[in-house]
Amino acid sequence: xxxxxxxxxxxxxxxxxxxxxxxxxxxxxxxxxxxxxxxxxxxxxxxxxxxxxxxxxxxxxxxxxxxxxxxxxxxxxxxxxxxxxxxxxxxxxxxxxxxxxxxxxxxxxxxxxxxxxxxxx
Length: 121
Fold this sequence. Notes:
Radius of gyration: 18 Å
Strand content: 25-35%
Structural class: alpha+beta
Strand order of the largest sheet: 2-3-1-4
Order of helices and strands: HEHEEHE
Number of strands: 4
Number of domains: 1
Shape: elongated
Helix content: 10-25%
Distance between the termini: 42 Å
């Protein structure tokens, strides 16, 4: 019984400390959509695959191609991996995919599910 309680406490601690702060979007400065030099970072979380399933394979989308479908030019991209649980049924891949775009294309990117963010670290 004591071992189960210890395991439960470790799992709760792991859950609490593994949560990541994606940044406070409300604290970002307003976007100047009229400026052709104004650049903003956007991101979207992609995850997929299934552990313990040999038929499961996941290839994340190419962010440049995805945004290109909405005529959004991308100046730079970054991928920041996220932790996934190590158990059957958990995803094999999870990451934040960031793209640096022109501010005037922000609404197009948001239409594809991207959110404005700070520059990734």
